[in-house]
Amino acid sequence: GENVEQHPSTLSVQEGDSAVIKCTYSDSASNYFPWYKQELGKGPQLIIDIRSNVGEKKDQRIAVTLNKTAKHFSLHITETQPEDSAVYFCAASQGGFQKLVFGTGTRLLVSP
Amino acid sequence: DSGVTQTPKHLITATGQRVTLRCSPRSGDLSVYWYQQSLDQGLQFLIHYYNGEERAKGNILERFSAQQFPDLHSELNLSSLELGDSALYFCASSVDSSETQYFGPGTRLLVL
């Protein structure tokens, strides 16, 4: 089955810096890759997603890139703010009714 | 706010007991997914229902069961509870076969 690895497990940056979180997946049939942000005591919140027919997608300060050949995808957050501090999860799915397989999460801390 | 609601928010019970967790999907969403989040296992898919029918099972124990009712809300039943069942339980919903899943705030279960 699918396996998703996520790095780093923790990431500390200064406010205004960029943050990059990387994930690799094992199943070449996966074609949908969402990213979720989870704040303390809350459920995962979808922040951006990408499908395999697209190499990059951007939404304001957040961007995701996908390299299908290498089977990895990355989350880029620019101009980080303290409110970006949270745990971020990547996930992969084969689409349709298929389950999401999650990475292990990255705890991002943005210091003022 | 994702539009997905879960009750109760917190649940404390004893080993051997049975509990029921409830989820109401976003308006118009036909699919409900259940996930378990624990420190050692991360976010794990349990089961998926679409319009009242079970569509997929993941790492769900035989002591656990779920159903989706005609009004599309879903319940996850956990029985013969063990200490290791203590975790956060999330449901997510999506529109038919869309991959985009929106998560509820979760139910925190503590088994003593």
Low-confidence stretches of chain B: none
What order do the helices and strands of chain B follow? EEEEEEEEEEE
User: How far do the termini of chain B sit from each other?
Assistant: 31 Å
Question: Which stretches of chain A are low in confidence, meaning pLDDT under 50 for 5 or more residues running?
Answer: none
How far the N terminus sits from the C terminus of chain A, by CA atoms, comes to: 41 Å
Give the overall pLDDT of chain B as a whole number. Answer: 94
> How many E strands of chain A?
11
Give the tally of β-strands of chain B. 11
- Shape label of chain B: globular
Structural class of chain B: mainly beta
Describe the sheet with the most strands of chain A: 6 strands, mixed
Q: Tally the helices of chain B: what do you get?
A: 0
Percent of residues in β-strands of chain A:
over 45%
Rg of chain A over CA atoms, rounded to whole Å, is 13 Å
SSE class of chain A: mainly beta
Morphology call of chain A: globular
What is the typical, i.e. mean, pLDDT of chain A? 94
**Helix share, percent of chain A:** under 10%
Helix share bin of chain B: under 10%
